[in-house]
Write a structure and sequence with these properties.
single chain; alpha+beta; Arc Repressor Mutant, subunit A; Glutaredoxin; 46% helix; 12% strand
Length: 155
């Protein structure tokens, strides 16, 4: 497992911005995820080797942040915030609506590999609940109608 020439150039650019390789862990994990689709054990070991880190450190960071996928998923990763404020504002209703609409449950991917749904403990936008994050884009103050509109407008 190795980075492509384009990703290798991006790796060098990322690492050059930090005082040491270890400090570049999160952006390099994002690069690896973009390059390899998800962070397999092999991908995390590759990142650890490249950054001169113990593999356990890379695994700790990759499993802490919900933005990192540890298995293949859909083109669109939909994270539904179900922390207490979002829950009180309808987060679980939004989650159930998405499950029903897409025909999958939390942790699953649609058969066409277009969508994966996961639960997020907190997306740090409590004042705009309920909300979802699709890949890295936030959608706030959700209703079923708004979800239909969001899904219909994804390329």
């Amino acid at each position: 497992m190795t980075f492509s020439a384009v990703a290798e150039a991006e790796f060098a650019r990322i690492v050059s911005k930090y005082p040491n390789k270890r400090a570049a862990l999160i952006p390099v994990l994002r690069l690896a995820q973009d390059e390899f689709e998800y962070l397999s054990v092999n991908a995390m070991e590759y990142v650890a080797e490249r950054l001169e880190l113990p593999p356990s450190k890379v695994l700790q960071v990759a499993t802490f942040y919900t933005m990192f996928k540890k298995r293949p998923g859909g083109t669109y990763h939909i994270e539904v915030c179900t922390s207490v404020p979002c829950c009180m504002m309808g987060g679980y209703s939004i989650l159930r609506y998405l499950e029903q609409k897409l025909g999958i449950t939390v942790g699953e991917t649609t058969p066409d590999r277009r969508f994966t749904i996961t639960e997020a403990e907190c997306l740090a936008a409590c004042g705009r609940a309920p909300l979802i994050q699709v890949n890295s884009e936030y959608y706030e103050f959700l209703t079923p109608e708004r979800i239909d509109e969001i899904l219909a407008n994804l390329p």
